[in-house]
Amino acid sequence: MRIAEVRDSKEGAEVSFRAIVLRKKGNYRYRVFDRTGEIWIDSDLPLSEGVPYEFFGRYKGGVVVIEKAERLEEFDLKDFLPFSDSIEEDERRFWHLVDSISDPFLREFVRFVFEPIWEDFRKAVAAKKYHHAYVGGLLEHTANVGEIVANVVPLYARWGIRSDLALAGALFHDVGKIWELKIYPKFEYDEEYGKLGHIFLGATLIREKGREFGLPMEMTRDLAHIILAHHGDYSRGSPVTPKIPEALLVHLADNLDAQMNHVLRSEENA
Ligand SMILES: [Fe+2]
Ligand SMILES: [Fe+2]
What is the rounded CA–CA span in Å between residue 257 and residue 263? Predict the structure, then answer.
């Protein structure tokens, strides 16, 4: 059973379900969740936070009274967290965008940054709730922002927009989220990295990696600027407003994709 079904059970009904323990309250009450929701359980068996169990018990007064709990040694995270169903396709789209960067040095730099963090990046979420809040959501969002930028830059080519810079900036803009938001056991702001935020984390990563790689100072600075300015203004968490057209474009593309996902997903769930 899923938690959504457990919650619809009749008073006194026998229930069994798999869930991860989120937190403990008092001596015997626990909050547990799966991908369909959360519920309170009462258990006098000792349970550990962040661990998945198979529970057997009875539904009484909105709470499940647990009779037996078996720790799951093998489990699929898909049972507990929402997952994107397009991770492989989005990976392909992402690397295709990287390949389309025409400056070989910048293209190499993008690979240099992403390759060591790829496993974390492909599984990351873009937000706790607002948009792309599922495993693989950050990858999907980043590929979308990259594609929006790649499609828009030709319109402004004759005005001298730097398409490679805009595209690399789009791919980097939210990279700090792999540290800011943790996915396990639940989508939550990381206690330590959450204090710094993804804008600072992303800009710092690019400065450090830029130095290590030998990227020209101006290029490193402009990429860091795109990251710093991508929320558009101070009230939304950007320490600087976009000061180059490439930064404005990434900001607008980011906003477009986040809002579209938010609206379309809420319609889907309505
Ligand atoms: Fe962001
Ligand atoms: Fe974003």
Answer: 10
* DSSP category for residue 73: S
What's the 255 CA to ligand 1 centre distance in angstroms?
9
Beta-carbon contacts of 116 under 8 Å, excluding residues fewer than 6 positions away, are none
pLDDT digits (tens, 9 = 90+) for 226-256: 999 999 999 999 999 999 999 999 999 999 9
Q: Answer yes or no: are the C-beta atoms of 50 and 21 closer than 8 Å.
A: yes
**Main-chain phi, psi angles of 123, to 5 degrees:** -100, -10
**pLDDT over 70, % of the chain:** 99
Give the integer Cα–Cα distance in Å for 70 and 210: 49
Please name the helix (run of DSSP H) or strand (run of DSSP E) that holds residue 22, with its range, or none: strand 14-25
Average pLDDT over residues 55-61: 95
Report CA-CA distances (Å) from 49 to 6, 29, 52, 62: 21, 12, 9, 21
The whole-model pTM stands at: 0.87
C-alpha to C-alpha distance for 187 and 127, rounded to whole angstroms: 8
Domains of the chain: 3-78 (2.40.50.140), 81-269 (1.10.3210)
144 CA distance to ligand 2 middle (Å) = 10
183 alpha carbon – ligand 1 mean position (Å) = 17
